[in-house]
Amino acid sequence: MTQSSAQRSTAERELEQALATGPFPLALRTALSVRGLALHRVQHRLAERGVTIGVTSLSYWQQGARRPQRPESLRAVRALEEVLGLPARSLARLLEPVAGRREGPDRPAARSYRTLMRSSTELEQIIAGLGSPADGGLHTVGHHERVRLGPRRELLTRDSQQVVRAHREGVDRYLAIHHGDAGWSPEQVAVRATENCRVGRVRWHAESGVMVAELLFDTRLRTGETYVFAYTFDDGTGGTSTEYVRGFSFGDGQYMLQVRFDDAALPVRCRRFAQTSAGAPPSGRQELALSGLHRTVHLVERRVRPGLLGIGWDWD
Predict the structure, then answer these.
(1) Is the fold of 5-95 the same as that of 113-314?
(2) What local confidence, expressed as pLDDT, does residue 305 receive?
(3) How confident is residue 231, by pLDDT bands cut at 50, 70 and 90?
(4) How far apart are CA 299 and CA 145, in angstroms?
(5) Nearest to 310 by CA among 270, 254, 280
(6) Mind spelling out the 3-state secondary structure of 274-312?
(7) Higher pLDDT, 259 or 105
(8) Are the C-beta atoms of 153 and 204 separated by less than 8 Å?
(9) What pTM value is reported for the model?
(10) Which pLDDT score, from 0 to 100, does residue 146 have?
(11) CB atoms within 10 A of CB 185
(12) Cis amide linkage into residue 25, ω under 30° from 0
């Protein structure tokens, strides 16, 4: 059975996108799939060009387990472009260093929880207890978040839809972090999986106001693959809320935050702010106008930086 022209066109567009955005393992994997070449055939064609490389190495490259770095490996990449019928340097350029990317080949520069949270010790203990690496093997590509305040000035709910990309092989879950306001009752907070995931284990530290929910994906991600999922925290148990802050371990992703207030409890002013760390003074302050009809304010950050970003408000 042969592919239809429509299928071939779609596959070529996917390949073009992978070559344009990377990362390298995803681009190579897509090229191999679109060209329909098994690794042993690729190895044979490389050998015809005087390039000797093992099938295992090729497999590691497409999985993201290893990265071509040595001169002979980079020569093999250039020959791969010929074998796969790709534009010159379309794979090689994805291996070039990117500013701010130091920790790994396809993992953006990261910040530790200790710089983002005052309750970092408790959070790190919870994450360790769940058996997850500190960075989770994922970084956020896009995040839309909607927070709703109640008539008692309390945080009622927060809905999140995220697009993440795996920078480690085999990732199948995400750890969502929730912060309760003073006086909260964590045992009454509900976590709901609303799109492409299900709720696993939920742990909290009541005194520090930290809750971590494990969201399980429907599949294991390969390095470079993206995943879309959504979830909700139903709280409403804490006292007066005066701000909502999101911490970013990784930079470069897009973020939208919208806060909706109840008609019975409207703030007198709202502002956007950022912080480089939990103890740093706020910066980038910007007054936000409350929508008269929908009682909302929002911010949009097209390319976040590691640190904290949020909206604060005054009741009186």
Answers:
(1) no
(2) 85
(3) very high
(4) 10
(5) 270
(6) EECCCCCCCEEEEEECCCCCCCEEEEEECCCCCEEEEEE
(7) 259
(8) no
(9) 0.68
(10) 97
(11) 12
(12) no
pLDDT tens digits for 44-101?
Answer: 999 999 999 988 889 888 877 678 888 889 999 999 999 999 999 999 988 876 444 4
Buried b (16+ CB within 10 A) or exposed e, 257-293: bbbbbeeebebeebbbbbbbebeeeeeeeeebebeee
Q: Is CATH 1.10.260 what the domain over 5-95 is classified as, yes or no?
A: yes
Q: Which residues contact 122 (CB under 8 A, 6 or more apart)?
A: 205, 207, 208, 210
d(CA 79, CA 59): 16
- Give 251's contacts (C-beta < 8 A, 6+ positions apart): 100, 108, 109, 303, 304, 305, 306
**Cβ-proximal residues to 34 (8 Å cutoff; 6+ apart), any chain:** 11, 12, 14, 15
The values of phi and psi at residue 102, to 5°, are -110, -30
CB atoms within 10 A of CB 182: 9
Rounded CA-CA distance 256/298 in Å is 7
Token code pair at residue 97:
């260093």
pLDDT tier for residue 104 given thresholds of 50, 70 and 90: very low
Band of the pLDDT at 133, cuts 50, 70, 90? low
CATH architecture assignment, domain 113-314: Sandwich (2.60)
Domain boundaries, the chain: 5-95, 113-314
* φ, ψ for residue 75, nearest 5 deg: -65, -40
What are the tokens at 124? 């790190």
